[in-house]
Design brief:
The protein is mainly alpha-helical. It is built from 3 helices and 2 strands. 66% of the residues lie in helices and 7% in strands. The termini are far apart.
Length: 122
């Protein structure tokens, strides 16, 4: 915990986390973000026509990746050692992870019911 003073001069305690704990989370976020980007890159390079279900899935995946990258950028900041900032970055990463999963599941489901275009044809 770090002590700081408020504008009124009273001491305020700020909960912090250990940097080694943050570094582990940072590594996980980086690896998962790289896998997400790799999946999107591979999918975008597949030949064939895109359908509306592909576009919906890609939008979810892209938004999820944007959240993951924002979480990665937040975790690179020294301010992420403050517990509130760390928790915010983790929530953002989880939201991104869920969006990527929804996009992938939507694409696979669309392919399974015959509405998909390119996701499983690689």
């Amino acid at each position: 915990m770090a002590d700081t003073t408020s504008e009124s001069g009273e001491p305020v305690e700020r909960l912090t986390i250990d940097s080694t704990f943050r570094n582990g989370s940072l590594a996980v976020i980086g690896v998962v973000s790289a896998f997400s980007l790799g999946f999107l890159s591979r999918w975008a390079g597949l030949p064939g026509e895109w359908t509306s279900s592909d576009i919906v899935a890609v939008l979810a995946i892209t938004l999820g990746i944007a959240f993951q990258i924002k979480a990665l950028a937040d975790m690179l900041s020294i301010a992420s050692l403050v517990l509130a900032n760390y928790n915010r970055a983790i929530r953002l990463f989880k939201a991104g992870l869920i969006l990527v999963a929804i996009g992938v599941i939507a694409a696979i489901f669309a392919e399974a019911v015959g509405l998909g275009g390119t996701v499983l044809r690689g």
